[in-house]
Predict the 3D structure of the following.
Amino acid sequence: QPRKATMCMKCRFPRPERAHHCLLCGCCVMRYDHHCPWISNCVGFLNHKFFLQLCMYAWTLGFLALLVAVPLAPACIHGVVAATSKVYQDFEPGPCSTKELDIYDSVAV
């Protein structure tokens, strides 16, 4: 019924028009969109703008991280491959390879 509050059968309170009951929060939310696990709250009339801002900031941060990481990726991968191949080719046993290190060797008593 337009312009008329109804009773919520789950929380037993008057429910305004266009409100829905959230099973996770246990209350009625005006213009209920969904229950978001990232903010641990319902997205509805009062916080829809802030949820969209959070989504846009997260998307922008991810896009900027991708822009920074993509040009560096080939050099980083080449450096790791070159370093590991050199390490395995020029491997010489060091002083620590013949005995196990004891944590009390370096502690002065």
